Amino acid sequence: MPPSTPRLVVPIDLKKKPWEQTLPLHNRWHPEIPPVAEVKDGEFSRVEMVYRTGGSIEDDDSALDVKTVDLSAVHYLSGLIRVMDKEGIPAKPGDLLKVEICNLGPLPGDEWDFTATFDRENGGCYLTDHFPSATKAIWYCEGIYAYSPHIPGEIIRGRMEYLTPMGPTPFHVNPIFNIGPVEPRFSEWLVFEGISVDKGGRQHYLDPTIAYRLAVLNAIDYLSKFGYSKE
Asked: Which InterPro entries does the UniProt record give (predicted)?
């Protein structure tokens, strides 16, 4: 059995900026980015991360930080992590890696998150014409629940994710979500997602019809793995 305490392979100091961390972070998957840590086959390990903006958003009632956030330096990621087999040989392109995610959660002392809309003059969003100003709502995490003092009465229930992309693999994996274990629970569901890019690779920028079509195709492809015909 694995040890009860995971080995910390990528530590994060919340008091430091992303570029001041002990192990360097990155902001994209690319084969030229070297690993900063390694784990062994079957090892129970822990990876800590910063938020996508690197701590530039504050836990307060003001949306000024959202309005002025530097969007040229975002999407901070931990890693890369080299995986070694029992003989000490690193995984290579084409190998199948099975990763069991035992737990996900905020770092101690940082149990909060936010939702926001960016300002028209700094990033904007697909509803900028309707909501041109920056807004922010803070959410506090308590177990699998999250609540916001800025959105009274709203409680978000956590959920588990399966088959999400985790690295520069030679194959593509679509997210499949298992609905969180919170009542009322009517049945078991898998939710398939689609993006608004057509089969020719053209980006249609949040076109729900194209996204829905791709979600259906993803569901069909998934079911076909169990012997069902695609018809």
From this structure: FmdA_AmdA
What is the residue whose two structure tokens read 């609905």?
A: 179
Question: Is the Cβ–Cβ distance between 211 and 195 less than 8 Å?
Answer: yes
Contact 78, 25 (CB under 8 A): yes
Per residue in 164-185, pLDDT (tens digit) is: 455 544 444 555 556 566 666 6
Separation between Cα atoms, residue 124 and residue 131, nearest integer Å = 9
What DSSP assignment string belongs to 97-111? ---------PPTT--
User: In whole angstroms, what is the distance from residue 165 CA to residue 176 CA?
Assistant: 11
Instruction: Judge whether 204 and 210 are in contact, CB under 8 Å.
Output: yes
Q: How far apart are CA 62 and CA 137, in angstroms?
A: 9
Query: Which structure tokens are listed for 18?
Result: 């992303």
Q: 209: helix, coil or strand? A: helix
Strand partners, 117: 135
Neighbours of 134 (CB within 10 A): 23
Between CA 61 and CA 196 the distance in angstroms is 34
Distance CA 129, CA 141 (A): 31
Residue count (the chain): 231
Tell me how far CA of residue 18 lies from CA of 7, 71, 109, in angstroms.
21, 14, 17
Count helices and strands (H / E) in the chain: 2, 11
What is the DSSP track for 50-81?
A: --TTTT-S-SSS--HHHHH--TTS---B---E
- Could you write out the DSSP letters of every residue in 38-52? EEETT--EEE----T
